[in-house]
Amino acid sequence: MIRTIQKLVDPEDVDVVLPHEHVLHNIGANVAIISSQKSLEIRIEDLIDYRHAPFAHGGRNMLLQNEDEAFRELERLQRSNSSKQVILVVDVTLPVEGRDLLVNKRLSLAKRLKDVHLLTVSTVETTLMNDIVNSGLSIEDQSERIANMLEAELIYGIKREECVAYPGAIYQQIELSGKKMNAQEQVLIRGLAMAQARTHAPVYLSFSVDEKIEPFNFKDIIREWIKVLTDAGAERRKLVLCHADRYCHGESEGSDLSFLIELLDFGITILFDTIGLLALSFDEDCNFNKGQAPLSSPDALVYQRAAADSVPTLRGSMEADGVQECRGPIVVVHSP
């Protein structure tokens, strides 16, 4: 079963999944508040502008705390659903981005939506991580404390006044600090693995690199993270690598995309951010192909290895939507 903020949902009842969204948040509060356009309504016709440039129109879309605005967008999504199944929207907004502050509005929004279910996430915040590392506990006990904290939030929910919202996944931001995993990362990774093994919740991994340090091959560190997670008991099919777009351009272009194929073959789920702006696929030599796709597509889709017998159907569907033909193994298997 899938735990949404209000109730359990049978996976068989889910038609479309938007796996990486920010429904209500204050991510860009500082920018939006000082903008002369902070009081402007977010118009439907401006959404494409925001997709290309999140801080367009004075960053108005980076301060989405108005429940009615969020409802209007999700209601359009709800109306587009012609099936009898439901839509699942994974809201990965973190506490520092307004998760807890907006619990009441998020619950109210969920009640107003009929066939759209919201899923929120648990996480280990930096301040909490620092407190645990400096607690004087052993490495094992530090990881145990992290696991217990995540497990408690997943089971008992996020409380705000008299309201409780239940997370259905773990979302963890990780800033890689060097070529080797440091002590704090080792504590965190084992805590995440224990929490996942106990609760079976999906774990979203969002990696970034400290720009102040000397460049290094962070793919090796990501491989190590995944190995340690699975060795510690985490289910590989429940691990999700976010923001995979960064591996599809720049220095990752061409043969480096074998890294993504490697993860897919290992059973890891991959999320791309800009699906709908570009259609992504690989040819038989793991080279990257891209073609323009309709801008009305969702922001993020789940990617996994496609079975050989499903490729023609997927390719035909993509061509019908105006996407150029991409030969070789297409890796889109969850396409709303």
UniProtKB/TrEMBL annotation:
Keyword DNA damage: no
Domain of life of the source: Eukaryota
Keywords assigned by UniProt, alphabetized: Hydrolase, Metal-binding
Gene Ontology MF terms in the entry: hydrolase activity; zinc ion binding
SUPFAM superfamilies tied to this protein: Metallo-dependent hydrolases
Family: Belongs to the metallo-dependent hydrolases superfamily. Phosphotriesterase family.
Protein name, UniProt field: Aryldialkylphosphatase
Species: Plasmopara halstedii
Lineage per the UniProt record: Eukaryota, Sar, Stramenopiles, Oomycota, Peronosporomycetes
